[in-house]
Amino acid sequence: MTDVNTLGEFGLIEHLTHSFPLRQPTSLKGIGDDAAVIDCGARCALVSTDMLVEGIHFDLAYTPLKHLGYKAIVVNLSDIYAMNAHPKQVLVSIAISSKYTVEALEELYAGIRAACEKYEVDLVGGDTTSSPRGMVISVTAVGEAEKKRIAYRNGARPGDLICVTGDLGAAYLGLQILEREKRIWQDNPSVQPDLEGQAYLIGRQLKPEARRDMIEAFEKNDLVPTAMIDISDGLASEIFHLCKQSGTGALIEESGVPIHPEAQLMALKFRLDPITCALSGGEDYELLFTIDPRDTDKIRFLPDIYIAGEMLAPDAGIKLSTKGGKLHDLKAQGWRHF
Amino acid sequence: MTDVNTLGEFGLIEHLTHSFPLRQPTSLKGIGDDAAVIDCGARCALVSTDMLVEGIHFDLAYTPLKHLGYKAIVVNLSDIYAMNAHPKQVLVSIAISSKYTVEALEELYAGIRAACEKYEVDLVGGDTTSSPRGMVISVTAVGEAEKKRIAYRNGARPGDLICVTGDLGAAYLGLQILEREKRIWQDNPSVQPDLEGQAYLIGRQLKPEARRDMIEAFEKNDLVPTAMIDISDGLASEIFHLCKQSGTGALIEESGVPIHPEAQLMALKFRLDPITCALSGGEDYELLFTIDPRDTDKIRFLPDIYIAGEMLAPDAGIKLSTKGGKLHDLKAQGWRHF
Q1: DSSP states of B270-311 as a string?
Q2: Residue A240 Cα, gap to closest chain B Cα (Å)
Q3: Does A156 fall in a domain?
Q4: pLDDT digit string (tens) for B43-82?
């Protein structure tokens, strides 16, 4: 008997699903990208689904239900944006134990509604059922895009520029603060949590946003990234996905990886290396994409986009060039949930 | 604080989702039917999702994982067929605790694969994650249909004939047998389960099929049901949904409700009323649909379709006419999961 931990999350998915062929002519893209792509004529439907499990993906000790509902939607929309597509509909299934009240669920759905309003997507379906313990939320997002504008993970070529939006590592550091305050509170329930001045980092953890603005900017500037993925498991893990599927190597410049000053400071307080937090932290829901170098002018004046490196030939491997001028192999740590 | 049980499953969904408007012009149908309908031009995409929770929807004491995987797919395809549409793709998310081995998951996916092959649908996505306890499976099915062939729940009119496919109550009685043998085995683990001669009833519970054949027969005979729903919660519950959404009453004839002889016999062995099992049993995944009486000839020679009653004006209520000639109010019991 083989423990599920031996394969890791991605290895397990690959092991279980490698024998499933795509037979339907409308199945343009199956497992292995941010979303499945279904041919509907000139336009395509994109479908992505994610499951959030209490005690694994969220801790209700410090996660307000309204934020949880908001985040559950946003992380799924992020998968659709990562295909350079527009999310239009969501379906939300929840399993809850009888410890949850109607009022608690109203909070959760208030967050879901706020996200649907902000991102202009419709809640069109789902399922509500009971669970013996805890809460499970499964969200399916449906989007649309012109076929020729879809950005897959496998389109990058050596020489393409590697770009990152926003800043990285903040969501991870927000989580470290929340976990620290939870431990303090568990040891001494009379101590109030000290979250003063940490709004940015905690907000990045509890209420992330998806980069709809980037997809709209690409459209306005007539840019289609050669490859794209959203950064949910950390930059290091995501660049591995792009390289593996595109058949390339990559060079990431430490100096090109955007880190917010507050994340920088907090990392040092926790005695963590800021670049490690940025590379392996996860849950930032920023976009990692590659562009043809001839398109450089199209992003030059777009705010919040950083050139973090270059795609290389496959035999170059996947490297990090440090600020000190050293070259390291990049390690894809990502999250280990099992 | 309000207990979630006070509203019931459908009341809770309605309470939580009533304030969500549909804003996207492509959202043709949102919550409240078997599947959401998304406009893609001449054709529509249909999306449906269901969550199965260990200890609530399945008991691994008597459910082989391969059957579970098969059933998880089939019950979702049934929702797409219930719109008179063709499922083409599925996405499968699972959350599992570390007690599951890779081999156990291979069994589950072997069942998923068998269903995908039989119904010619592609597995195109999903999510695999861990859970603190037990297993949760969430399946999303995507289908397609010509806009004018889609059958909603709200299209029935007084005078339409009520039709049922297959036979009802067998899945519920299969479950009673499995639960009985589990109790016997728990009391005395040396006793082997006595499932001899119960293959039909147990098969209906553990390995249901979806009525793809009916959708194909409707197409061949140029028939579009005026309303349709799949029978997952029992005929009584489903006819309530059709009547509520169509704004009609209904008369169900007990003599028109198809019950398999083995279900009839087993109900009596369990001292249950066979018609109650058929009306409230659930999990048969047959189709309940209504047709314009002028279309009667189109179903006359189709096998496995039974005329079970007639839609009435709304003030007539929802009635059951018994074999003894009595008229009762029909009660929608369905399943109570909370």
Answers
A1: TT--HHHHHHH-----EEEEEE-GGGHHHHHT-TTEEEEEEE
A2: 19
A3: no
A4: 999 999 999 999 999 999 999 999 999 999 999 999 999 9
Which residue does chain A place closest to B44, by CA atoms? A40
> Residue A249: which CATH number?
3.90.650.10
Q: What is the pLDDT of residues B292-314, one digit of tens each?
A: 999 999 998 899 999 999 999 99
Calpha distance A163→A290 (Å, rounded) = 6
Is the Cβ pair A38, B13 closer than 8 Å? no
A43, A146 in Cβ contact below 8 A?
yes
Residue A254, SS3 per DSSP:
helix
Question: Can you read off the two tokens belonging to residue B216?
Answer: 């194909």
Confidence of residue B332 (pLDDT cuts 50, 70, 90): low
DSSP letter for each residue of B46-100? EEEEEEEEBTTTB-TTT--HHHHHHHHHHHHHHHHHTTT-EEEEEEEEEEE-TTS
Place of tokens 């012109």: A146
Q: A20 with A119, same domain?
A: yes
pLDDT of residue B336: 41
Q: Is A1 on the interface with B (CB under 8 A)?
A: yes
**pLDDT exceeds cutoff 90 at A6:** no
Return the pLDDT at B311: 98
B27 bridge partner residues: B38
Do residues A185 and A139 both lie within one domain? no
Domain with B225 in it: 161-329
Dig out the tokens for A41 from the structure.
Answer: 């004529």
Q: Around Cβ A297, how many Cβ atoms within 10 Å?
A: 9
Residue B105: its chain A contacts at CB < 8 A? Answer: 4, 12, 16
List the CATH number of the domain containing A140. 3.30.1330.10
* Least Cα separation, residue A255 to chain B (angstroms): 33
What lies within 8 Å, CB to CB, of B325 at 6+ separation is: none
- Amino acid letter for position B161: L
Residue A123 DSSP SS3: strand
- pLDDT the model gives residue B334: 43
Segment A213-252, tens digit of pLDDT: 999 999 999 999 999 999 999 999 999 999 999 999 999 9
Phi/psi zone of residue B81: left (φ > 0), alpha (ψ -120 to 50 degrees), beta? Answer: alpha
**For residue B244, what is the enclosing H or E element?**
helix B235-246
Q: How many domains does chain A have?
A: 2
Which of these, B212, B231, B216, lies nearest to B34 by C-alpha position?
Answer: B231
Grouping H, G, I as helix, E, B as strand and the rest as coil, residue A11 is helix
Classify A286 as helix, strand or coil.
strand
Of B2, B45, B105, the CB nearest to A40: B45
Q: Which of A118, A149, A180 is the endpoint of a domain?
A: A149
CB A312 within 8 A of CB A244: no
Determine the angle formed by the axes of helices B199-206 and B170-187, rounding to 10 degrees.
100
- B60, B201: one domain: no
Domain boundary among A149, A181, A203: A149
Q: Which of B55, B129, B338 sits opposite A337 (nearest CB)?
A: B129
Contact between B53 and A136 using a beta-carbon 8 Å cutoff:
yes
Contacts of A142 in chain B (CB under 8 A): 38, 45, 47
Amino acid, single-letter form, for residue B160:
D
Q: Are B232 and B72 in contact (CB under 8 A)?
A: no
Q: Is A127 on the interface with B (CB under 8 A)?
A: yes
Q: Report the 10 Å Cβ neighbour count for B303.
A: 7
Rounded Cα distance, B115 and B37, in Å = 23
Q: Which of A28, A60, A3, A281 is nearest to A154 (CA)?
A: A28
